[in-house]
Amino acid sequence: MDIFEAVKEQVTAREAAERYGIQVSRYGMAVCPFHQDKNPSLKLDRRFHCFGCGADGDVINLVARLFGLKNGEAVKKIAEDFGVLYTRSRASPVEQYTARQTRQRKQAQQNRFSNAGRKFFQIFCDYRQMLGEWEERYAPANPDDWDHIDPRFEEALQNKSRIDYILDSFICGSPKEEAELIAQYGKEAASLDRRFGNNEGRRQEEAGRGNDGPGIPGRSR
To answer: CA 166 to CA 185: how far, in whole Å?
Structure first.
């Protein structure tokens, strides 16, 4: 087994990220170091994928990007830092070709995040962040105000836990489960995208639409 195969078999992207200072949540999410990330959008397991900027690859690609190294330099760094054992004998051309084909097939199988999945995840992440802001900003100042609460505060209370469930299920789910979530909540994601997908939509929500304020999903207006 050569150094590339040994490193990718023995070290995951998550392990390398944690070794090199990236804080990873128990769900395998982290703030992406490759763009100005406000919410954790970097998914880490054996490979890594950012739902924000699209950065994607294996542990070698991750370390190469983190330290500005070429892949050959990155793989040597990982092997040294993690004590990876590998053979130095050179494989025959046939063996090299077979190994390369195997790696390509595995990469295709592991690269399971579609454009639709990335957009779905990002829409609900953005909405969840907005709900948190609304809950804090529009909370009643005193008990008497609870009779006339801001619709945005009410929406935050109603939807925060449900959106957390959708995001957690998407992050931790299998490819099949992710596809089922997209099928189940895709219409809601499209509705949220139309509602908040541009600056004007966000401005209207912040200002409140008429006297009724913003609409609450699942509630007639």
So the answer is: 9
